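Reminder: ligand-aware prediction takes two inputs, not one.
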Amino acid sequence: MPFQTIIEPFRIKTVEPIRFTTRAERAAALQAAHHNLFLLRAEDVIIDLLTDSGTGAMSAAQWGGMMQGDESYAGARSYFRFEAAVRDLTGYRHIIPTHQGRAAERILFSSACARGQVVPNNTHFDTTRANLEALGVAAVDLRCAEATQPSLLAPFKGNIDPAALDRCLADHRGRVPFAMITVTNNSGGGQPVSLANLREASAVCRKHGVPLLLDCCRFAENAWFIKQREPGQAHRTPFEIARDMFACADGCTMSAKKDGLVNIGGFLALNDDELAARCRNQLILTEGFPTYGGLAGYDLEALAIGLKEVLDEDYLRYRIRSVEYLGEKLTAAGVPIVQPTGGHAIYIDAKAMLPHIPQSQYPAWALSLVLYLEGGVRSVEIGSVMFGRQPDGSEKPAPMELVRLAFPRRVYTQSHVDYLAEVLLHVNGLKPRIRGVKIIQAPELLRHFTARLAPVDGSLLAG
Ligand code: F0G
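Here is what comes back for the chain with F0G:
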């Protein structure tokens, strides 16, 4: 195209109204939700950036495909379509459907891991870490050095540290069932992992005889960044690059609610025959027969189509550009964000933005509450409420205090993003008045989902 503006590469055929709320209504909603945005009613939210998971809009082709769903209990046609799409993309031998990513994780981990073992990853996502820790397995994060400096511009801040991986596999010889790499690295800012890094990690794992698995929820976004940023990759298609990414590993866990472009679904794919057989038995126990795995036939149809649509270059260009567009507006206004902008989300660096709030008073959580109060925007804290509680019950500050604004796929338009920028800039102006929060009540595992909190000073904003 000869023009500069990157437009949404779709027209909107079905619309869902947004209910506008007043600030007073949102203040009341926050009280009722115990200052936890997960406990809000979604209809009280104007722009919902809680997650990009399962919140996307499906295409006309996907809705049409769903009518073709074969709902047979065993051997459904829809399973074979889904299996072909996943195998074509990943090249893996065994394709096991699950209802979402964490089901793939639980099935894999309970089939492959034992108490006292260690699993390294660039950064484990919260459910990945929790599923390992629930089995008594240590989840070790080995992010590259650039990853912990939010303002540093580097092309592949999602990379794993290959030297640290080598040391980890040597130190825990015989106790590492597999290593993982998360693409893109969600908890580390939605940052991509380079092909070179995947290849290096793959070689380290091979040297130690340890399988490597990808947590590949956002494989297409990662492939796009490789195309844009890695030398020698610009002329290749996202599909070709994705194939190469998968070829570095021996299997993957997938939440198809992200780059599968579906509202529910996931899979586990493996080359190891014996491990796959154990996983299938686990699947039958809790999810369903191996040709549906807790999904409907129509879900498998939508997923088979989504996996192809997500690799479309016009789609990926628009997707990554929308995030970058908001990032540019925030950076110009001096709002500290993780740089460069990642694939599915903007991550505000709350530690840098609110230096007057100590980590023990959860600055990122407080900021996310103020964004909702002022503009009806729902985000998610990725900081010390999410990651601060240690398996032994002690409290340790998270390495970063981030507020993630995750973009649902194909849902919001540029004017929604302009509104967001306006809200964020307004909140930036309130910075000195924002106060911290405390936890009133929380469960032991994954506490951020259900914890009850309150402002330390009785109010989120001083004065
Ligand atoms: N791995 C990563 C990297 C994820 O981001 C998620 C989910 C999962 C695994 C688990 O998948 O939700 O289908 O069970 N992330 C969502 C998020 C929830 O908001 O980032 P799931």
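The longest helix spans residues 313-332. DSSP finds 16 helices and 14 strands in the chain. We will return to this case in the review session.
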